[in-house]
Each structure stands twice: as structure tokens, then as C-alpha cells.
Amino acid sequence: MQKLWGGRFTKSTDSFTDHFHSSIGFDSRMYHEDITGSMAHAQMLGKQNIIPQEDADIIVKTLGEILEDIDAGKISFDEKAEDIHMNIETILISRIGDVGKRLHTGRSRNDQVALDTRMYTKKEITEIQKLVKNLMQELNTLAAAHTETILPGYTHLQRAQPVTLAHHLLAYLEMFKRDYARLSDTYKRTDVLPLGSGALATTTYPLDRFFVAKKLGFAEISANSMDAVSDRDFCVELVSALSIMMMHLSRFCEELILWSSHEFHFIELDDAYSTGSSIMPQKKNPDMAELIRGKSGRVYGHLMGLLTTLKGLPLAYNKDMQEDKEGLFDAIDTVKMCLPVFTNMIATMTVQKDAMLQAAKGGFTNATDAADWLVKQGVAFRDAHSIIGRLVLYCIEHQTNLDDLSLAEYRAISPVFDETVYEAIGVKQCVEARNVIGGPAKAATEQAIAQNQAYLSALM
User: Fold this and answer.
1) pTM tops 0.85
2) Active-site residues: which are they?
3) Residue 5 — very low, low, confident or very high, per pLDDT cuts 50/70/90?
4) What is the distance, to the nearest Å, from the Cα of residue 71 to the centroid of all Cα atoms in its chain?
């Protein structure tokens, strides 16, 4: 086929070069954005009398028909036409002849591809935010059911202090709130119309860029044409935001994997989100959680790939930038696949409350509360810390717990102790005593849940 840019060439490109050069295999997913953008461009050309209005009307009508035919599966794309932009234009010209050749007036593929990518990215950000909202809602609902489910909180993967499952879940909700906000920030910087920038230096035609921006739902237009065609910061920002989100999902999955083990037995994952072993009949493996954890590396790789592709490019457009899309698309696809699986996985898991409670009662998670009790009796904190440390050592040597020591054993190390220490170091009291904003006490947690629900209700 004759290339639409082939006027100055005397021979065809090599067949392998066509394959190497073509991006239709992956950018065809942007056909809706490409056609919609072209329709707005054609309407503007007609309005500005850059092309005859009747030609603009025919172009818009035919583009609409092409869109319907693609949606219906009636059109196959041609690798020799290189990309989605040239495929659509080639099909248009095949249907309406010379009139179709007027469409590309006043634009370049450089600003066209930038437009399509921004439109596609805006749409996908909105879709991902819906999935993140669903996850946050599930976390908040789950937290509301577990404000009194006590488990040990950990530092260094060592039992530290008792908290509630609700408090633990709400920690992740805060992470996903930040992820949602990062997506919103990325959307703002993606919501800029590049069309009208031409190849790099705009055009001599009297374009109405604000008209096109309004037609396509962009908040503003680009301020510099060279930046507009070479900018892929919004792609980097999105993949960066998705990488951080995958890191949060991966951390949560790691805990679910640990919690579902025989050693913890804090939860049991639903059969629908587990697999078995080909050789060991007793196994119930948390494969979905492991896959999500593993896919975080995949998204990180796309971020580094994109940054590396862009780092040495002079202004303005370079063909290297064709490499932006596969990583961007795959990062989006990966996150959109992981989020609903994860949401359903936690919605269907069984919480083993008794196992969590027994774990909270072990490992001296109430040691800090015992030290705080001494402080409230007038003992300096550093002295209280030392006293409780000696008591813990005594318990380890005698294979017992702080709760099970007699008052005489307490008083042998410090005469300050009396019977009220036992109430202070009960794990439920340890949790309820921490009634500080951001703390695990039931009242503080219920306040956080209510605030989160108001936040979620206000989202789109």
C-alpha cells in the first residue's frame, strides 16, 4: 500500500521494517479516542473555514460510521498502515476519497498521538479510581465489623502491642486514599489539550484550540507546542502512582499470606481465591495474593522502562516515544485486574477471631501498658521501662506471661505494684485505653470509620 507520508520516497519500506515500525498491534485500543479526536478536529476546521463546511460534515459523518463498524467488529486493521492514526485515516480516504484527505489539515501525528494518549489515560484513571473506591468501601465495611476483634500489632514482625483488626484495615485504607488522591493529581496534569501543536511549531492555519478542548472535555490547552508533543510526564506520573498502589497491595497481600499460614491462622481465604497443590493434597495456597504481590514488580518495571526511554530525548518528538504505550497500557491492565481480585478476596475471607486474640495475649504485647501503669503511679518512664524489662525476662525464664504473675512476683521487682495492674494490662483494656485520634480504641475507630464513609460518599 502507498504510505500517506510516502511522497518523497522512491521505494517501499522493507516488510520486516513495516512490522518493526508498526504500533497498530497495541495502539489499536485507542481507536475510539482517535476517531473522537478527529471528529472534533474536523468540526473545528469547518467552523474556521479552513476546509469547506460540507467536507467537514462528510468527514464527521463517515468517522462516526467507521467507529460503529469497528465496534461491531467489521473492520480489521492493517499493519502496513503503521498505527491507529494512519489506519483510521486510510479507511476514511478509502470511503470518501479526496474529501478524507482534508482531515489532517493543521495537525501532525505528533500532536494527534499525544491527544489520543491523554484522552485514553484520562478515561483509564477514572476507571481505576472507581475500583480503588470499591476497595476502600470494602475495607471500611470490614473495619466496621471488627472494631472489637483484637490481634497483635507488629514491628520488625515481632509482636508489639495489641490493636484491633479494624485499626489494621484502616491503616491500609489511608494508603489507598493517598493513591486515589495521586490519581486525581495525575488526571489534572493529563487534562491538557495538545492538539494544535502540530509537529512541534503549531501551524499557519487559524485553529480554534479552545473549541476543540471544549468538544473533547479538556480543562485547558497546552502552553508550548514543543513541550506538548514531547511531554510524557503524565504517563510517568500515572505509572508511578500505579507502582505505589501496587506496593500497597503487595504489602497487604504479604500480610494475608502470613495470616493464612498454619503458623498464624488469623484468616482463611475463600476457596474461590486459593489453589491446591499438584502433589500435596492438604495444601491450600494463597496464589491470588502471591500473584498480586508478584505483579507489583511488573508495574515497577514499566516505570523504570518509561523513565529510561525518556531520559535522553532532545526536543521535540522522537520515535523512541512510541515505546511509551505498551508499558503504560500493561501497567493499567495489571492494576485493573489486581484491584477487583483483591477486593473480592478480602470480602470473602474468614477471620479467625480467637486465634488473633490468643496471639495478642502472647508475646508480651501488654508490656508497654504495664510500664505506663507504673508511670501513672509516679515512676519515671525510663525506670518503669527497666522494671518491666526485668519482669519480661523473669517471665521468659519461667515460661509464663505478665498476666499470670502473682502480685508477690510483681512486688519482688518493684514494691509499687498493686492489684490494679492486672486490669491495666488486659489486652482489651490496652486497646480501649488508646482512645486518641488515630488510635485503636473502639470510639476512635468508629469515628474514623464515620469520617471515611463521609469521604467515600463524596467521591465521584
Assistant:
1) yes
2) 156, 277
3) very low
4) 28
